[in-house]
Amino acid sequence: MTPEDRLKDLGLALPSAPAPVGSYVPSIRTGDLVFTSGQIPTRDGELVYTGKVGSTLSIEQGAEAARIAALNGLAQLAVAAGGLANVGRIVRLGVFVNSAEGFTDQAKVANGASDMLVNVFGDAGRHVRAAVGVNELPLDAPVEVEILAQLNA
Q1: How many domains does the chain have?
Q2: Measuring CA to CA, how many Å separate 97 from each of 9, 13, 26?
Q3: Predicted structure pTM score
Q4: CATH number of the domain that 47 lies in?
Q5: β-strand 46-47 against 42-43: which pairing, if any?
Q6: Over the stretch 14-23, which tens digit does the pLDDT of each residue have?
Q7: For residues 104 and 91, what is the distance between their CA atoms, to the nearest angstrom?
């Protein structure tokens, strides 16, 4: 079963890769590695969620935002790799959480992205991760997700 088939089974579709909102490239391939720029939870160019997790958004909403941002990261990977079937494994996930003062459950928010990657890639989706609380993110996004993936040999 391909990663695209697994996405379909999850009721998800790979979106078009979002255009950068600044002066950067959406991904870089070097050797057998692809690094994505940070992705925020957008659909069709619009933020799905805004605000701080722990005040205006719940942990569950933050986790959903992380899943959407990771899906955008997969779209960037698909472009850089020539399709998700060419991704050998997810190596690292970085999740930045726009956190309310005193909020310390960033790991629970990041699980929205992590769990989706494991569901799409199986054991090859297991990764190392950083879940970091920040006081602001671009466009008032609640999360920003970056992915490092290794391509098939």
Answers
A1: 1
A2: 28, 24, 20
A3: 0.97
A4: 3.30.1330.40
A5: antiparallel
A6: 999 999 988 9
A7: 24
